[in-house]
């Protein structure tokens, strides 16, 4: 009886909400339903991702695989866009070389092998590797406390973990990624021979996670090798150091920096029929790290952005504004593609309405983060009821994405798709970031969510213009 009353109440509330909707809201709801239906039944995103991941593989900037990805996505976008073209950009090329070798040695002379990988941009060790004492710190700020006499001639082991108490996992990442990016430059100034960095991973496993690092303004002759260690092995090393502070650590890696090479952003667009000079951008980054095939980071964002154009074409929607997909090159280790695109947009005085990025994995979408002003945010929040049937509830002011960030001065609303992030760092920059880790339905829901926001911005524009 209670269940029947509850169901009746829900039905009455739904009926009342439907009656309260304006005809315009009902029209928008119908369009969103069409978008989601198409993406969940006829999307090409998963098929595109399978090719990028399994036929091409990891797409490190400047690599042959990155060029293959440029050619493949250009060809596919040409089928769903009015125009598709390449934007040249110079990118750094770095190669890993042969697999890294690392171990620590106990007092009894027992060698304990650990799982490591070179950080992107690191220099190699000497060909035979390097053995030295290792000292553990909780972060860069500990170096000054220890001083050069305690650090010189040793490896520095950065062991600050991502905070498990952070519900927003990107906040946990932000709390310790400085040791990966700047740790080598900081330790070199104190005479360290190399750095070993705990992987940016909330899960305990045996997979080291790579990522970009920088030597800052150090002279080249002061560069030192930098490697990531898996979370399980970081715990082993920590325990061993508690028993023996004179522990020796061995590292061998032969990665190489090759300078700059020619690459490209891939750009495709469907021209607007009323305001063609106003651009709505969707994008992801085409490059990835080399350990896996970059399916979550950022193959998912690439194919979701491509899918926005395919959805427009297949549903016969005629956009008022120009809808442009940009597949950025070199987000992982330089942001060259994003900076080149923004520079050209400023030179050409292009007006961007919205710049939406997907670079947080192919998991179930939860909403968006926006970098904009309160007036624009108020408009965005008025659209929340349209997304509620699809369980999209997260609309937060503050932040967007790395590749759209350089467009801030264009006046565009900057946005980042926010999928559920709890599993993202299990795969981020590691060898298990592969096609099998991506769920087809979750990927398609993300593309539909992006397409829906694009539709609303195309229909209504910015608050300041509000062209209909």
Explain what you see.
- With 468 residues, this protein is an alpha/beta fold.
- It has 2 domains: 22-92 and 259-460, Zn peptidases (Aminopeptidase), CATH 3.40.630.10; 97-254, Glucose Oxidase, domain 1 (3-Layer(bba) Sandwich), CATH 3.50.30.
- The protein is 38% helix and 23% strand.
- It is built from 15 helices and 16 strands.
- It has helices at residues 2-20, 23-42, 45-56, 64-80, 141-146, 148-151, 169-174, 177-188, 231-243, 295-314, 336-347, 374-382, 384-387, 424-427, 440-460; strands at 83-95, 101-105, 111-113, 116-118, 130-137, 155-158, 194-198, 226-229, 248-252, 256-270, 275-285, 321-328, 351-357, 365-371, 394-397, 413-419.
- The strands form 2 sheets. It has an 8-stranded mixed β-sheet with strand order 1-10-12-11-13-16-14-15, sandwiched between helices.
- Helix 10 (295-314) links the parallel strand 11 (275-285) and strand 12.
- Helix 10 (295-314) crosses helix 15 (440-460).
- The longest helix is centred in the C-terminal third of the chain and has 21 residues, at 440-460.
- The termini are far apart.
- The model is unreliable at 6-19 (pLDDT under 50).
The outline comes out as elongated
Q: Pairing-aware structural class of the strands and helices?
A: alpha/beta
By DSSP (H or I, 4+ residues per run), the number of helices equals 15
Question: What distance separates the N and C termini?
Answer: 49 Å
């Amino acid at each position: 009886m209670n269940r029947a009353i509850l169901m009746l109440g829900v039905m009455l509330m739904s009926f009342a909400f439907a009656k309260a909707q304006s005809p315009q809201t009902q029209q928008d709801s119908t369009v969103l339903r069409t978008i989601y239906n198409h993406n969940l039944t006829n999307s090409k995103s998963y098929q595109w991702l399978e090719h990028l991941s399994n036929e091409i593989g990891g797409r490190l900037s400047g690599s042959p695989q990155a060029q293959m990805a440029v050619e493949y996505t250009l060809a596919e976008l040409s089928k769903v866009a009015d125009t598709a073209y390449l934007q040249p950009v110079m990118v750094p090329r770095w190669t890993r070389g042969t697999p890294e070798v690392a171990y620590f040695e106990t007092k009894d002379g027992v060698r304990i092998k650990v799982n490591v990988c070179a950080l992107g941009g690191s220099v190699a060790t000497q060909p035979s590797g390097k053995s030295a004492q290792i000292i553990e710190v909780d972060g860069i700020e500990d170096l000054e406390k220890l001083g050069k006499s305690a650090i010189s001639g040793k490896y520095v082991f950065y062991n600050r973990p991502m905070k498990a108490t952070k519900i927003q996992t990107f906040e946990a990442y932000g709390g310790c990624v400085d040791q990966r990016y700047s740790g080598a430059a900081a330790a070199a100034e104190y005479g360290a021979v190399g750095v070993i960095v705990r992987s940016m991973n909330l899960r305990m496993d045996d997979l080291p996670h790579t990522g970009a690092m920088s030597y800052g303004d150090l002279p080249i002759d002061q560069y030192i090798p930098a490697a990531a260690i898996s979370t399980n092995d970081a715990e082993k090393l920590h325990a061993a150091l508690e028993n023996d502070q004179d522990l020796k650590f061995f590292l061998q890696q032969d990665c190489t920096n090759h300078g700059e090479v020619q690459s490209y952003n891939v750009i495709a667009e469907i021209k607007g029929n009323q305001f063609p000079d106003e651009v709505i951008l969707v994008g992801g980054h085409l490059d990835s790290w080399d350990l896996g095939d970059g399916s979550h980071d950022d193959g998912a964002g690439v194919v979701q952005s491509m899918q926005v154009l395919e959805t427009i074409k297949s549903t016969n929607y005629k956009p008022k504004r120009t809808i442009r997909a940009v597949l950025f090159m070199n987000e992982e280790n330089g942001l060259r593609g994003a900076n080149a695109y923004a520079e050209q947009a400023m030179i050409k005085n292009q007006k961007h309405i919205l710049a939406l990025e997907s670079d947080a994995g192919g998991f179930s979408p939860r909403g968006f983060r926006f970098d904009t002003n309160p007036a624009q945010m108020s408009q965005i929040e008025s659209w929340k009821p349209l997304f509620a049937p699809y369980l999209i509830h997260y609309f937060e002011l503050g932040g967007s994405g790395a590749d759209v960030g350089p467009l801030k001065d264009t006046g565009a609303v900057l946005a980042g798709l926010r999928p559920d992030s709890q599993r993202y760092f299990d795969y981020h920059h590691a060898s298990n970031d592969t096609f099998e880790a991506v769920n087809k339905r979750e990927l398609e829901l993300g593309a539909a969510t992006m397409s829906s926001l694009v539709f609303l911005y195309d229909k209504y524009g910015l608050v300041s213009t509000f062209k209909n």
